[in-house]
Write a structure and sequence with these properties.
TIM Barrel, 4-stranded antiparallel sheet, binds ligand RRO
């Protein structure tokens, strides 16, 4: 038996493979066996419902995807009533990604969260007028938001950072000081697509968030930077498509990883990756993830 479980920052996952926020919803239970996953992060929730940005909201690019969803969601109260009961039945650890346009909004939403394994604080969405990357680029605001969330919950608090910060290490340190138990590195990279028929940006808000294989080496370097300099665990995210990518993230310092846009092209990738890490460990004679990580430490 290969033990893929990971314990860190008060979190216990049966394996390190987590579905990222925004790329799945409950209909995916028909395709993916959620009980096999280490965890799932539900798409970003705000205090009040939000309609999101006008279409188009997402398009393919070479080696990836760019989105401008704009945080469309039902709001925490409707979520608690209508969605949470079903999430609790998934048989995996459930985390909620939360968003606020102000520190006060972050405080309020945090106090309404219950019955989940943890909170992922979104200070990294590139597709909104207020909050999002505007909070995550500034270490002082990142500190204030994290502190506000930690003061209003007993759940583990993970902060999802933007690669657009001028120094991601300084932002991660601020989150650690404010009480975060882990960092997710990273959210999408701000990017632009121009529609050559109109000569104008494809998205009404101009900027979009780039994800997929295009960003993997960039995101991997952010994970390396944060995990080499900051004392709390890092969950790696950005362009992971197969188990070899996951190994790269482990060796760059990630404790666990999130799968994002690969779900659009291969919804079975999470299960394939778990199976392939198990196979890899068997072939190499490792019995757990610690031994896999140790092979580069020594
Ligand atoms: O909803 C979005 O537009 C969005 C979010 Br909340 C996020 O965190 N990252 C992203 O690329 N898009």
């Amino acid at each position: 038996m290969i033990d893929l479980s990971v314990n860190f920052a008060g979190l216990k996952l049966k394996n390190p493979v987590i579905l990222a926020s925004g790329v799945w919803d409950l209909p995916y239970t028909k395709i993916i066996d959620f009980e096999k996953l280490g965890g799932v992060i539900y798409k970003s929730l705000s205090l009040m419902p939000r309609e999101g940005n006008p279409p188009p909201r997402i398009t393919e690019i070479p080696c990836g995807v760019i989105n401008s969803i704009g945080l469309a969601n039902k709001g925490i109260k409707i979520f608690n009533r209508e969605v949470l009961p079903e999430l609790k039945e998934l048989g995996t650890e459930v985390f909620l990604n939360i968003f606020g346009e102000s520190i006060e909004e972050f405080s309020k939403i945090s106090s309404l969260i219950r019955d989940v394994s943890g909170i992922e604080v979104n200070i990294s969405c590139p597709n909104v007028e207020k909050g999002g990357v505007y909070f995550g680029r500034d270490p002082e605001t990142a500190y204030q938001v994290t502190k506000a969330v930690c003061e209003n919950t007993d759940l583990p608090v993970i902060v999802k950072l933007t690669p657009a910060a001028s120094d991601i290490v300084v932002v991660a340190e601020a989150c650690q000081e404010a009480g975060a138990c882990a960092i997710t590195a990273v959210n999408t990279f701000p990017g632009l697509v121009i529609d050559i028929d109109s000569g104008k940006p494809l998205f009404e808000r101009v900027v979009g968030g780039v994800s997929g294989p295009a960003i993997k080496p960039l995101a991997l370097y952010k994970v390396y930077e944060v995990s080499s300099n900051v004392g709390i665990p890092v969950i790696g995210s950005g362009g992971i498509g197969n188990y070899e990518d996951v190994l790269e993230y482990f060796f760059a310092g990630a404790m666990a990883i999130q799968l994002g846009s690969v779900i659009f092209t291969n919804p079975l990738a999470p299960i394939e990756i778990i199976d392939n890490i198990t196979k890899y460990a068997k072939e190499k004679g490792y019995s757990n993830l610690k031994e896999i990580r140790r092979c580069v430490d020594e």
